[in-house]
Amino acid sequence: MTHDAEVWMSRAIALAERGRGYVEPNPLVGAIVVRDGVCVGEGWHEQFGQAHAEVNALAHAGEAARGATLYVTLEPCCHQGKTPPCTDAVLRSGIAHVVAALQDPFPKVAGQGAAILRAAGVSVELGVGEAEARRQNAPYLKRLAAGLPWVHAKWAMTLDGKIATRIGDSRWISGETSRQRVHTLRGCMDGIVIGVGTAVADDPLLTARPPGPRTPTRVVVDTHARLPVTSQLVQTAKLVSTLIATCATNAIALDPLRTAGCEIVQLRQDVSGRVDVLALLKELGSRGCTNVLVEGGGVLLGSLFDAGAVDEAHVFVAPLLIGQGDAKSPIAGRGLDRIADCPRLRLDAVERCDDDVYLRYRRGVEPIGPVG
């Protein structure tokens, strides 16, 4: 590995990021074509179903690709999907050397792309920039490895760690800039999940305004199917995909929701008698969801933290103090008795939103996708 290789791969990873929200359930991929130390072509996977990063970069490079090096954040695919195999495009271009950050764990690739290129005389190097590429595509890798989406937990709280007063008042803890940041986040998600208590208390719409690259399914975790048919979520269910995750079987409760356009998914109960959140995540993963945003409330977030299912936390801290000992905290659930047992998250980013602070944390250990 050379310093130049790391620099070029870093640029390819930055290009890949431009596809976030547009390419899922495909991975984020960026590519750079370098000849004699000069970039002659670059590209990224821009839209699901459209040309992959390698094809775009090679098209940009044209004849300059012959004898050049291709830096790509993921092993080139070798199967016919919505687009032809990228290995074909690489071989046609005359590329002499391929440097890929990650081997693609997708079963139809999984090292076969690299093997095809090597068999045709193209040298292939894997692992340059692997850690950053793995971090970037952690949601894709988790879905392939476990069949589960990447779970983003989001909440807004005061400086003393409260998400609402003791009477349930929470509008608005965060400021306008923070709320707009949440809308941007929503627009990159496959699903937005809330508990029925939050749905009843806040009557949210749960859409991205303005719309983002994705239109997430709205998911209400509603054990006993008590979401009012008069709620905004139900009233707009024929316009925006709305899923009710429930343990209820009572047609009197479920039929009005179905008639209004909600999809009902009946799931098993956990030991507390509520919807099993792991069963819900498995259901969402089977539907191709790569990223889901959980917006509360505390009971639902607590269930997910108790299950070890939260991958990333988005926390908006506002310059307010409530000061009530019985005011609501972000996380309920069983929790942990010992500090030594608490998972220690890694600070990923800090962003100022006027007088609020947006903190983004990730789990300390990234998932590793299967190989072969």
Describe this structure as you would to a colleague:
The chain has helices at 3-16, 53-61, 86-93, 112-119, 130-136, 138-146, 176-186, 196-202, 232-235, 251-259, 277-286, 298-306; strands at 30-35, 38-44, 69-74, 97-102, 123-126, 150-158, 191-195, 217-221, 242-246, 263-266, 291-294, 312-318, 346-353, 356-362. It is α/β, with parallel strands linked by helices. α3 packs parallel to α4. The model is unreliable at 366-372 (pLDDT under 50).
List keywords for this structure.
372 residues, alpha/beta, nine-stranded mixed sheet, five-stranded mixed sheet, 28% helix, elongated, disordered C terminus
Secondary structure elements and pairings:
Elements: H1 3-16, E1 30-35, E2 38-44, H2 53-61, E3 69-74, H3 86-93, E4 97-102, H4 112-119, E5 123-126, H5 130-136, H6 138-146, E6 150-158, H7 176-186, E7 191-195, H8 196-202, E8 217-221, H9 232-235, E9 242-246, H10 251-259, E10 263-266, H11 277-286, E11 291-294, H12 298-306, E12 312-318, E13 346-353, E14 356-362
Parallel strand pairs: 3-4, 4-5, 6-11, 6-12, 7-8, 7-11, 8-9, 9-10
Antiparallel strand pairs: 1-2, 1-3, 12-14, 13-14
